[in-house]
Design a protein that fits this description.
The chain contains six helices and seven strands. By secondary structure, the protein is α+β, with helices and mostly antiparallel strands. Strand 4 and strand 5 (234-240) form a beta hairpin. Helix 1 (3-45) runs parallel beside helix 2, helix 4 packs parallel to helix 5 (200-216) and helix 5 (200-216) packs antiparallel against helix 6.
Length: 315
């Protein structure tokens, strides 16, 4: 072969090898840069900061900007948490301040009704009672809506007496049930001495919401049965009514925020209660389930993690 051709061939091979080496060098450098960036981004996602590098490299520029972003995000988060706590305290205070005089108004209206009154005065008492009940309903819905919208459900679960949760929730729904001549039948035999992992205040609120719905959608002179079902890992609080029931295709939707079935559009409500029930249970490791026979009644089951006494075994 001609020496000139050999030289050209050798030169071409050398250039090709050099090109491959350069390509691999830059690919390795790029991969290392991407790995460094990924590590920095992972730290940023965890809220961490990074040691500043004072040079002109791209890594240093990215690190400096990410430090600024993390600092800004942390400041905004702290500000949002402070505002949330302030709003939560304000809503709680307003609710308490309004509920006390409103409860008194409803009490005095009931006492006034028992007095001998002429027809015109009795008519005014009826109007006053109706408006006070409506105002009470709107106050409850306002508080529920505020909790749901501001994500203010601060759950602090601990070992809690299941029977006490049921008793307190039933007491909260007792007055509404009496007005419709509905009987709340509680079976606490299985719940006595059984403990669950729950925030008592919020779990009572969740159970009371379920009971209020049962009362609201049940006919007069019906029965609501509240019982406890025990499982290996869970305690189930079941609220079973004889109300209108829920269509099968809607049973998975009723726990959504602001969801309301077409069947209950004429009944007062905003679709917040069951959403709060789901959130309260979710935040303490539980869940809710609905079993309903449309037109015949609904059973809402609230599952809470079961806590055993020392030395006690499961079912």
């Amino acid at each position: 072969m001609h020496p000139y051709i050999l030289s050209i061939t050798a030169f071409t091979i050398i250039c090709a090898l050099f090109g491959i080496a350069v390509k691999r060098y830059y690919e390795a450098k790029a991969e290392k840069t991407y790995q460094n960036l990924l590590q920095i981004l992972d730290q940023a996602l965890q809220g961490g900061t990074f040691e500043n590098v004072y040079d002109e490299s791209m890594d240093a520029a990215v690190t400096a900007r990410l430090n600024r972003l993390v600092h800004i995000a942390r400041t905004h988060r702290q500000s949002a948490e402070k505002e949330r706590d302030t709003i939560k305290a304000l809503i709680s205070d307003i609710s308490h301040q309004v509920r006390t005089p409103l409860t008194n108004i409803m009490l005095y209206t009931g006492l006034l009704r028992e007095q001998p009154l002429c027809d015109s005065a009795l008519h005014l008492v009826n109007k006053l009672e109706k408006q006070s009940v409506k105002l009470d309903f709107f106050m409850k819905e306002l508080v529920k809506s505020s909790y749901a919208e501001q994500e203010m459900i601060a759950i602090r679960p601990q070992r809690t007496d299941t029977a006490e949760i049921i008793r307190t929730a039933c007491q909260a729904a007792e007055l509404a049930a009496m007005k419709k001549q509905i009987s709340i039948d509680t079976d606490l035999l299985a719940a006595e001495g059984v403990f669950c992992y729950a925030d008592q205040k919020w779990t009572v609120e969740a159970t009371a919401n379920v009971l209020e719905n049962a009362v609201k959608y049940s006919p007069k002179q019906s029965v609501i049965r509240v019982s406890a079902l025990l499982y290996e890992s869970f305690v189930c609080i079941q609220v079973k009514d004889e109300g209108i029931g829920i269509r099968e295709e809607e049973q998975g939707l009723v726990f959504g925020r602001f969801y309301r079935s077409e069947d209950v559009k004429e009944t007062e409500g905003y679709g917040i209660g069951l959403y709060l029930v789901r959130e309260v249970l979710r935040k303490q490791g539980g869940f809710a389930r609905i079993r309903s026979d449309y037109g015949k009644g609904t059973a809402v089951q609230l599952f809470l993690s079961r806590v055993y006494k020392p030395g006690e075994t499961g079912c």
